[in-house]
Amino acid sequence: MRQLLISILALLYPLAGLAGEQPVQLVTAVDSHQSASSAYRQFIAELFGRIPAAYTLSYRPARRAEMELANRQFDGDAGRGADFGSKYPELIRVDPSYFELRFFAISYARSVTAWRDLYGLNIAYLRGIVAVESQLGAHAKLYPSDSVTACIRMVKAHRVEACILNSAAPANQEFTDATPALSNTEFGHSPVYFWLTPQHQVLAQQISTVLRQMQKDGSLARYQRRFEPPSN
Questions:
Q1: Rounded to whole angstroms, how far apart are CA atoms 167 and 36?
Q2: Measured between alpha carbons, how far is 178 from 64 in angstroms, rounded to an integer?
Q3: Structural domains in the chain?
Q4: Which of 215, 203, 196 is nearest to 54 (CA)?
Q5: Could you write out the DSSP letters of every residue in the chain?
Q6: Spatial contact of 40 and 48, defined as CB atoms under 8 Å apart
Q7: What is the pLDDT of residue 63?
Q8: pLDDT tens per residue, the chain (232 residues)?
Q9: What is the pTM of this model?
Q10: Phi, psi at residue 168, to the nearest 5°?
């Protein structure tokens, strides 16, 4: 019953806010069509309900979310990998991480077990995946794509040797099935964090405290299982 009340109250905070408090404006690249979207939003609602703090959560495509955060149109991004800090060192990374992103290489039977296996190749990737840019920017020719379909079709057309996606990619039949001739190989992972603008030191500490509480009471693990896409 207590857990149910926490969840109900948490879901009210982004709508009503807290008296006299300006909501924290968060951006996310997780859209409503992704399989984990509902669990992801419930997780953030419970986290901010436990602080408690008012917030808003707005969807933007990954690259646009990055640019609008850089321009301070938002107070933070609710989910970016560790590589995000190398591009925006002024942002606050909130520890601990709350999820592990998995990376996939879609190609014609190319053996990919690590980022270095992609060096020297032509690589398509979903625009806004910062890890691809930081890991391969100096080692491969990169072609950003605006959709999963466009990325995979570049491989099919032999314009690139591989398409790189992660487990946050929007649900797409071509991603899950590819084609019989294409391989879909998991080759790496990266922890996911909240990232906040510099003026939110106090909020960063509050989020960190609640995340550790959720680790201890098992609620974070329950959400993590729901973040994972269904098995093929």
A1: 10
A2: 27
A3: 2-100+191-227 (3.40.190.10), 102-189 (3.40.190.10)
A4: 203
A5: -HHHHHHHHHHHHHHH--TT-PPEEEEES--TTSTTHHHHHHHHHHHHHHTT--EEEEE--HHHHHHHHHTTSSSEEEEEETTHHHH-TTSEEEEEEEEEEEEEEEESS---SSGGGGTTSEEEEETT-HHHHHHHTTTSEEEEESSHHHHHHHHHTTSSSEEEEETTSPP-HHHHH--TT-EEEEEEEEEEEEEE-GGGHHHHHHHHHHHHHHHHHSHHHHHHHHHSPPP-
A6: no
A7: 84
A8: 545 444 444 444 444 444 457 999 999 988 766 666 888 999 999 999 999 999 999 999 888 999 999 999 999 999 998 889 988 999 999 999 999 988 999 999 789 999 999 999 999 998 878 889 889 999 999 999 988 889 999 999 999 999 999 877 665 555 555 566 888 899 999 999 999 999 999 999 999 999 999 999 999 999 988 886 544 4
A9: 0.77
A10: -95, 0
Residue type, 153: R
